[in-house]
Amino acid sequence: MNLKGLVEDTSWLFDFGFPIRRFDAPGDPSRSPNWDLGEEYRLPGLNRLCSVSREFSAKMAWGAQGAFLQIEYPIIVAQGALFEFSSILQLYIDTRSSPGIHRASANCHCLDFRCIQPYSNRFESRPMRAELLQIARAKASPKPMPPGSAVGWCSADERSIHIHAFVGMEALTGCDPFEFPEWGVMFVVIDSQYRRYSLARMTQAVPMDDPSLWCRARLINQDTGAGP
User: What does the pLDDT look like over 184-196, one tens digit per residue?
Assistant: First the structure.
């Protein structure tokens, strides 16, 4: 049997890395979802390499204000069921990318976003509560997150659920894009039907407590394509 047959999930055969571009939102990005990331911020469809793949799209950016993430996934509701969008997003960021280090440091964050009001008019944007969670087996934890420094919103249209998440720089321990221009990044979304949508590597095991298995995101400048 070859390695792919043993692993059963092609995504485990790769060390993923990609660029994320700089974005400066108009006004205060923590007050409302008044920002939108263009196509140039779209992340690669690494989920297609998994043996079980669910289609969704994600965009991510960094900037002087913080980190930005947009996710869109299809609405799948059983016939006759009540529509809801009680989504859960967990975003993992290592501000000083740690390839080869298997336990989380103080620079590793797990940010949990949950809809505050799950049942609603689907066309109306609803806030998501943001909380900093402990990472299992972590050697150290990041500093406490200041109130209001991470926020999210969830909305829907006829076909898709839309999530906007913003994490301010003050919530990211050890973040210095100019000295450390690479982040470790991973995320997973769980919808109201308990389906999971993840950046990569979710078929056999959940690698969220091991930052060496997160993807590596190189922070680049939008105009020059070079580092910060």
Answer: 999 999 887 777 8
